[in-house]
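User: Last request for today: this protein with manganese (II) ion, please.
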Amino acid sequence: MQKNIVVIEGDGIGPEVTRQAVKVLNAVAEQGGHEFNYHYCLMGACAIDKTGTPLPDETIEAALNSDAILFGAIGHPKYDNDPTAKVRPEQGLLKLRKSLQLFANIRPVTTYPSLQHLSPLKGKILEDVNFIIFRELTGGIYFGKKELNAEGTQASDECIYSREEIERIAHLAFKQAQQRRKKLTLVDKANVLETSRLWRKVVQDIAKQYPDVKVDFLFVDNAAMQIILNPKQFDVILTENMFGDIISDEASVISGSLGLLPSASIGKGSALFEPIHGSYPQATGKDIANPLGSILSAAMLLDHFGLRTEANKVREAANWTLQNGFVTKDIDPINFYFTSTIGELISDYVSGKTPGDIH
Ligand code: IPM
Ligand code: MN
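Assistant: Here's the final one, the structure of the complex with manganese (II) ion:
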């Protein structure tokens, strides 16, 4: 197959980890006789530096015309510490999500037996944890009207959801639940928020079309507690934009390192694949960041292209590195391997080459 992939390396460790994912995609392409063409585009702080805007039109254009987008990370400390900055790297990502109508962000959470000691949770709680978060990505408080009064003493952020916005992601989440353990949990704050009451109503209505899926409802404060107390109770979690942002970071530490988790954002047009970690500025250029979040995002991209066997091979390769101690510094601060080495090991594994002596 022939596919056009837009690559947005972004800021901080984004370029380093994304290059490993591209290596792995190249190995897959070579093995299967596929042709992946890459088009590199700017977004984030690096785009502000070069063009004055976090998301140049050219990037939107290329993304709209692509088969998929592979994205690294976004953000720079010089903006985080300046609440008055008018132009911010994150605006680029938000605008890209909106322009491509990437309304569903999908974040799987699994555990790896060899990494259990790194999880802040203990033994039994970790067994059989396997759930997936469906986070709404183009609505809610992130995209409502934002205001600051002239005196700078009062601010507001509006939170709006329409039935249609809830329905389209709810259908995706129910369909996913049907292919898994057939349980869906809606996380909301329906005891306080009108938007949450609409989410509950719409999900109850849609549930009638999926009678084989068991639905339950949790308030977000309780959900935050349950994710730590008893994470194996979850199968598919469905939630709105900001709650999803918060609980997915919380859930990410269960597996032992934030650096491991991939995500897919899908919608009407091209889909986007990115690790859930940020730009990790302190590690930039040191070749120490964990590339697995990015490589496993590339595996989700392969799934999206219908290359399921290849995607599974990449996941198998990633597991193989973890089981054999080929890990980055976040996982083993003493005996660690470099980002680029892990990328090579995984691409070699995918190519069927016996990994050489790298000790
Ligand atoms: C994420 C990030 C983004 C978000 C930021 C960078 C705007 O935290 O993808 O989870 O809040 O959605
Ligand atoms: Mn986040």
